């Protein structure tokens, strides 16, 4: 069974192949017909982009979607994630797309399920489908990420997007820095720190992160205007970016905080292109999960069972 739970389990060959497939789907390559497959999307945390773009990808692959809403399910009676997923497998689901607040929720499921688990975000852990669409967007712009300077700026400590991206970008040969409030900088991520004013002058790719108020304990006072002036992408900083540089943000965006309102749709912002790319990246992920073709290189942990 092929699970898509993080990118560290995949070889660089597999990741490059997924990026290529995502770009091919965007160019109009015909999608495989998975009309015999039934998918369930289980979102225990809120989502707009990830859920909708997985649904769109599933439609484009002709998959059948079994509706599932946590709010009206027996999760509300205390049924565990494990039993919920076992139930859906017994009913006939061929794969589960899951977003859940528990970091690493998939470890136990991988031992008990014989259908692919696709991680749509686990707590403060990983968001591998977001990383894939981010990589796709960078490769679409530059042809490669090798040698490119990427600055990941913002709420590094709470961000599953940052964690997924820092690891994979380093493996693919990018030069990665962290920026944003020093108290949210996490040295364990293994990326050096750059203040925002230096970062904007050096980067080829500026990846802004959302301030995740829902993951903060509320003990530190947060001033959006101060954050914007100190760490945000202001008009003045935008003018100091390299002319070739691009701006990414996984969204939802706190307009006027991480980025000035008027810059969200700036020509060098790829924010809405990332959302468009998310559909193609998720088509490639679903195709990979159901493929029997081996494209594995030799630099990945094995997450199959
Ligand atoms: N980027 C992202 O994961 O957005 P959603 O939370 O809306 O899915």
Automatic annotation (TrEMBL):
One of its GO terms (biological process) is amino acid metabolic process. L-aspartate binds at residues 77, 160, 210. GO terms for cellular component: cytosol. Residues 2-140 form the Aspartate/ornithine carbamoyltransferase carbamoyl-P binding domain. Residues 147-289 form the Aspartate/ornithine carbamoyltransferase Asp/Orn-binding domain. It comes from the Bacteria. InterPro entries: Asp/Orn_carbamoyltranf_P-bd, Asp/Orn_carbamoylTrfase, Asp/Orn_carbamoylTrfase_sf, Asp_carbamoyltransf, Asp_carbamoyltransf_Asp/Orn-bd. Carbamoyl phosphate binds at residues 49-50, 99, 127, 130, 251-252. Keywords: Pyrimidine biosynthesis, Transferase. Its EC number is 2.1.3.2. It catalyses: carbamoyl phosphate + L-aspartate = N-carbamoyl-L-aspartate + phosphate + H(+). GO terms for molecular function: amino acid binding; aspartate carbamoyltransferase activity. Pathway: Pyrimidine metabolism; UMP biosynthesis via de novo pathway; (S)-dihydroorotate from bicarbonate: step 2/3. Heterododecamer (2C3:3R2) of six catalytic PyrB chains organized as two trimers (C3), and six regulatory PyrI chains organized as three dimers (R2). Belongs to the aspartate/ornithine carbamoyltransferase superfamily. ATCase family. Catalyzes the condensation of carbamoyl phosphate and aspartate to form carbamoyl aspartate and inorganic phosphate, the committed step in the de novo pyrimidine nucleotide biosynthesis pathway. This is Aspartate carbamoyltransferase.
